[in-house]
Structures are given as C-alpha cells and as structure tokens.
Amino acid sequence: xxxxxxxxxxxxxxxxxxxxxxxxxxxxxxxxxxxxxxxxxxxxxxxxxxxxxxxxxxxxxxxxxxxxxxxxxxxxxxxxxxxxxxxxxxxxxxxxxxxxxxxxxxxxxxxxxxxxxxxxxxxxxxxxxxxxxxxxxxxxxxxxxxxxxxxxxxxxxxxxxxxxxxxxxxxxxxxxxxxxxxxxxxxxxxxxxxxxxxxxxxxxxxxxxxxxxxxxxxxxxxxxxxxxxxxxxxxxxxxxxxxxxxxxxxxxxxxxxxxxxxxxxxxxxxxxxxxxxxxxxxxxxxxxxxxxxxxxxxxxxxxxxxxxxxxxxxxxxxxxxxxxxxxxxxxxxxxxxxxxxxxxxxxxxxxxxxxxxxxxxxxxxxxxxxxxxxxxxxxxxxxxxxxxxxxxxxxxxxxxxxxxxxxxxxxxxxxxxxxxxxxxxxxxxxxxxxxxxxxxxxxxxxxxxxxxxxxxxxxxxxxxxxxxxxxxxxxxxxxxx
Amino acid sequence: xxxxxxxxxxxxxxxxxxxxxxxxxxxxxxxxxxxxxxxxxxxxxxxxxxxxxxxxxxxxxxxxxxxxxxxxxxxxxxxxxxxxxxxxxxxxxxxxxxxxxxxxxxxxxxxxxxxxxxxxxxxxxxxxxxxxxxxxxxxxxxxxxxxxxxxxxxxxxxxxxxxxxxxxxxxxxxxxxxxxxxxxxxxxxxxxxxxxxxxxxxxxxxxxxxxxxxxxxxxxxxxxxxxxxxxxxxxxxxxxxxxxxxxxxxxxxxxxxxxxxxxxxxxxxxxxxxxxxxxxxxxxxxxxxxxxxxxxxxxxxxxxxxxxxxxxxxxxxxxxxxxxxxxxxxxxxxxxxxxxxxxxxxxxxxxxxxxxxxxxxxxxxxxxxxxxxxxxxxxxxxxxxxxxxxxxxxxxxxxxxxxxxxxxxxxxxxxxxxxxxxxxxxxxxxxxxxxxxxxxxxxxxxxxxxxxxxxxxxxxxxxxxxxxxxxxxxxxxxxxx
Lengths: 481, 481
Hints:
The structure is a homodimer of 481-residue chains.
Chain A: E1 17-21, H1 30-38, E2 42-46, E3 61-62, E4 76-79, H2 83-96, E5 100-103, H3 114-129, E6 134-136, E7 142-144, E8 163-167, H4 170-182, E9 187-192, H5 201-210, E10 216-221, H6 228-238, E11 243-247, H7 252-262, H8 272-279, E12 282-284, H9 287-299, E13 308-312, H10 315-327, H11 337-343, E14 358-359, H12 367-379, E15 385-389, H13 392-396, H14 405-419, E16 424-427, H15 434-445, E17 451-452, H16 455-476
Parallel strand pairs in A: 1-2, 1-4, 2-3, 4-5, 5-6, 8-9, 8-10, 10-11, 11-12, 13-14, 13-15, 15-16, 16-17
Antiparallel strand pairs in A: 7-9
C-alpha cells in the first residue's frame, strides 16, 4: 500500500490539440465528426491519404503525427486503427510529445486469445520504457470531458457538472452518463478505461479525488489486480468526496462474464461491502440505486435524514410508506403538540389525517393550506425533512376539473423549498400519465427536490446516505459535500 | 377456521339497477355522472328535491328508494350522505330488496372518535338483524366492475381484464388500477372495502377465488381481526389462482398509521412471510414489486424460470445483470457446444461475445442476425428463456443514423416471441428518451413481453414466481395460471 504512486493526470484540463488516428470513410469519420462538433481546441486527422476530407474540409490532415508542425501541440490522441498498428502510432505519439492517448481498438487481452494477449504485452512493454505518456484503454472509450468538448460519441450531452466517473465499460459509461444527465446530474469528467494497461481505476479515482471540478464520484469496477484492493480502500479513505461504487463480478457467473468482457479478474467480493463501508465509500448493487443516490447527493448533499414527515394523498399508500421507511431505519415521529395546534384547523375535511404519515386528501385542492402545512412542518425542530407522495392519476384526473393540480403541486413544493433548507423528497409513481410525471420531475429536480417513483427507492437512498455519513464522520470528520 | 362462512357475492355480475343516494349539486353530481357515463343498466338518483337534475335530465329522480316502482329492481345502491343519515337509507335499501350497498361516507370508526364508533356500531347492529343485504364500507369506494360500467370515479378505465383486486384503501385501489392498466393488466373486479363492517377482505377474496372472470388476484391488507389470519391462509391454500398480497402495517409506525386510516388492527407481521408462502400466496413489500409481478403473471403466467440467457448490448451491463440474477438464484448456463457451433459465425465483430451473458454489440444493426441468434437460443433445451437488455440511448442515438433501431428492435422481439413459447423479458433503462421507452413498452407488452427498467426488478419478479410455483406445487399441484 505504501508504494502506490498514482499517475499524474493533472494536465488533462490543459488539453489544447487533439488528433484522431484511424477515422475512415466507412464509418463516416464518426469519431472525427464527434470531436469536430464540440472540441474547443485544435483538431487534426491522421490518415494514410494526405488530403483533406471532403465532408470535413476544415480539419487539417497529416499522414503521421510527427508531420504536424512542431509549434502546434497535440496533447491528446484518439486511436482507432487495427490492433497490429497501435504500437506504431503510440511511438509517434511519444515522438510528438503527446500527453494522453486513448486506444479505442479492441482485440487485445479482452479477446481471450494468445495473440490478443501478445499485442497487449508489447504495448505494456513499450510503455514501461516510456513512462511519460499516459494511455487509456485499449478497448475503452477514453475520456469524456464535456467542458472542453471532449466526447467519444456525438450523442453524449454537452452539459457539464460536478459528478466525476470511472468505468471500465464504455457501454456502461454511456448508460450512466445519459442516466445521470437525464436526472439533472451532469458529469465533470468520465473515464472509460477498458483493459487499463496504463491508467487504471485507482489512477482515475485518485485524479477525481483532487479535481476541483468534481464534487462526488461514481465508479464502476469489474475487477482489480489482487494487490489493488488495499490501494482502492486507501484512496477512498482519503477522499473527502462521496464515492459511489458498483462492483461487477460479485457472483461466480458475474465474475466469469467480467473476465471475458475486459479481461478483469473480479477477485473475491465477500469482503467488499464491509471494507468499502469502513473506507467511507458507498457500495450499491444496481444501476437504479446508483442513479437514485447520485441525484440525492447532487440535490440534497450527503446529508443524513433520520426523522421525516411523510405526507400523502392516500392513507393506504401512507401506511405502505411508513412500513418501507421503517424497514430502512427511517423514523416518522409523532407530530408534536405545538405543530398540531398550528395545523389542527386545516384538518377538518373527511379523509384528512393530522398524523405522521399525514393524509392531506382533498386539501390538495387548496394550495395555500398545503403551503402553510408544509412550512409549519419544516419549521418543527423534530422533523428533519419531508417526503411528499402524490399519484399521477390524482394529478392528471382531478375531481375538480377547474383546478390545475399539477401546476399547483409544483408551486407548493417550490414555496416549501424556498422556505427551508431541510430536505424535501417527492414520490410520483410510474403508472402512466408520463408527461405529467416528467414535467414534475424536470421542474422539481431543477430546484433541488429529488423525485422518485417508489418509496423503496427513496428509503434505500436515504439509508445509503445515512450509512455513508456515519462512516465518513468516524473516519475523519470528512468535509461533507 | 371451520366455522368461517364467506358471504355470498355471486349475484354481483347480475346487477341490473343502481341508485345513487346523496349526489349533490355542490360536487356537480360527481358519482351520478360517473355511473351515468358507463353503467349499462338502469340508473336512479335519490334526492330530497323531487325533480329531475338539469344537467342529467335522463336520470329518474325519487325522494326515497322505496318510491321507485316495485317492478324496477335496484340491486346496488351507492350512499354518499352525512353519516347520521346512512342507517335510514340502509333501512330503505332493505325495504326495496337491494342486494349490495356501498357506503362512501366516512366519519365512522375511521374517525377515531366515540361518536364515530357509535354510528358504526348502530349500522353493524342493524345489519346483524338483516343478514340478506351486503354492505361495502363505510369509508370505502365500493366496487369497480368495468365490464358492467360500475366505477367510483369517471377517470377509472373502461377496459376490463382478468386481474381481481381487494383493497381496504380507495386511494390505493385507484393507484393500483391505474398502475395495472398502464402496464397492460386490466382489472376484472376491484373491491375497496374501507372499514369493512360487512364485506371484508376474506369475503372479497373468496368471491374472486371462484370468479370465472378473474385469473389472478391482488390484495392490499391493512389489518385483519385477530382470528382472521387462519381464515386468510385457508382461502389462499384453497385458491388455484396466484394471489399477490401486500400487507401494510408491518412495522410499528405502519401499524399505527393503519389504525388511524381504516381503524384496522394490523396484528403481528412476524409470521406473515412464512405463513403466506406456505399457503401459496405471494407476499410483496412495495407497490412497484406488485406491478412488476402482476404483469409477469399476466403476460408469461406463473411459470418458473431458472436458467436464462442474458443478451445485452453492453458487456458491462451484462456483468451487472449476471450478478443481480445470481443474487436471486437465477442461473446463466454456459452456451452449449451445439448452439455455439450454430452461432459462431455471427460473433466476428469486435465487442461481440458469444457467452452468457451475451454481448451482441454492433450486431444490433443487423436485425436478421439477431433474429437468428434469438431463435437459436430459444431452441436450446438448456435455456428456459431470454432477457434482452437494450439501452434507450443506444436506440435513440444510433451510431448509424440510417438504421431505425427502435422499429428493428421491436420487430426482432416480435419474431422471437412468435418462434417460441419460452418467456422473453426486456430491460429498457429509465434514463430519458421517454417516448422510445414508452413505445417499446406498449408494443412489446402488447404481445406478452414484459418490459422492466432495471435488471433487479426482473430478477426479483422471477424469484417471486419461482417461489410461488414451488409452494403451489407442493400444496396440491395447483392448476397454473
């Protein structure tokens, strides 16, 4: 553990020039078009034929990297040539003084063949002689850095935020980026490291740990070399930002799959949950858990919530919620006498219930009352936050057609959010009426209220946060996000 | 247990005339309009003022039920009058020979007051003298029977299907009905029983157990009288249809909430999971689990699936899926030599992987290959079914813009479904691109392929089904749905 020296990646925000090696007419210069559409620096194409590409006439073309004038720096090279030619290109990169290379080409150790492994060994051997260049891949998508316009697919969002990401799998990185941005959690930098012959999970994680543009981190790990576990735990231990991890290859059948995917040894999972928790990381098991947790951290922060008031429009669903929250150790304290006195006069309509869970029932038709109720609840020192459940059918099909319940509901929550810094969480079930659900999600998540489609998602998320905070506080009074 | 005599509800499909007592101008004759919009039999309004309602001129009006001509039968009466007047109306119902009454009015035991309990006790006492009339409620929505056009809200769907339902809570019944219909699982009959002074969970469940229009049942239970647990287990034990149950009030805070909601004693939950499983019921914990399971039973049946082939477009997500399926005891067997021989020639593109999980990667651009792959897999006796994961970002933002991946994907699965009776399940993550996701869901669920948004949902659902089938087979070779 003592001898681990993470590789220096701090030059990444200073990437000035990018060259693409291997863009072909066959795939319509896909990756070249991608960089051309967004990269803010200078872009070059390296191709056999020394003439401009008709469809992309503004991009200068060279047959070799070393032909680019010496006073034009190329800091990053994206390589998509057949595997037998990769080493040759890397040599040119070193000659040109390139800082970072991304090898998209697959067919190395990931192929599971002797020949694939030999090609990979050759690359590793060459790099060990040339320690100044950093390499992503092979068999990875490289780096996504939307602020600089560095993307590996045209379809990846331009928006950038403060969530860092490391993933071995490019497909999963795409899925995670789209999923996060869709929830209002844009990404600062994402690394897709593939077979990881140089930059590995630890290096990327270590970089993001100190990156000022990154406030929390998502890590997808298929496997680590046997000795790397301890190093991972050390980085997590030192990291003062929440790190959400998902470990693939937990089971035997998953481990076998990971082996064939990125030639990763999945290692023994048994110790992980405890060790990650002890080190202050947050280990999730599914992609959905990951998204749910990321948006909580983004909107509310890594802030523990133990005592909530559960507000709903259906007594029955309120009971289910009380149960599920109880399963995750979240308490619904009785409404205090003082708060009860302030609220009593609102709860005269049939079906309403001034308890916790609270049933506002038809009161929802009267925004001003619900606003006052929420404000009073948030003002109660016994209540650390509110979960508000409303069903899309109630919103879409109001009993009183003259009331625009959707707009009212959004406004009620906007006012509540303004009135207090305490966490507010909304549940809108995924039962159709999709436009309404999406609108509520968009508008509320836009002001920092996470919206979930099931109480279990919310409860599970809160439990992850609560456990993280207790571990982080124990470790070293970590600065919370 | 021996002396339990379930109440006879078999007359319900023969309801000819309905009267609404208490429709007022104040709520724009809400319930009267609801019945008027869909009920296929004769409808009457009972109101103080003996004249037709201007907005609903076709509905005959009487001041008392007993004023309706003797040769015009009224089988069902919906009561929405102040609580102190309910008993008087019930007396008229008995005089008129009404079979079924639904008391919408709240403010009985649910109110938690002495006076509320007294009103409820009076009703119970009167009914014990008049055992021929059946009563739903008070504080419930009554019955939803879409084939006859009996609904308690105009917004409830007209579609009818084969899923029966019992729920104490009306709000939750609405949520469940909308949720089920949105997933392509329409309802045969739903009972919202509220305080359940006459028809209780057991009666409704017993009725649905024998109802020829119902093939599986969803039951939401807040509480049961102490002696009813054994009776419930007996009905489940005898029932040859899958019964999905959700028990609210599992936790202390949930139990307290249930008490204030429908005055139900939640009882001790500890024994439930084991007892329900032994009796052949399926106990879920959340609303989402309930919907996920209901659509599996509807589309695939209560059919056990232990060995699957997992097909995906992302090796990384495939590994996560392998893990999660492993967590739920679902095996991904190695692809057999024979099948491998048949498929080998397809798997030449980089990124593809002929394993289980299988990565078809860019092969997805070639529908005909993927069709042949799926057909070959479904033909393999070692493989009991397929889970196919595709990400909406892959579908929405294809690398080759000339291919309509969404239509292709739907067609691939339609052909696979036609080629084999084995279960096919699709995962499309909920990460935006909502139109595409909804279209795929609609089209595939329309042909019996359940679509989930996360592998965990699918795995959990399969585990519920597998456990149910093993219990049901042990009990008495139950006829599977």
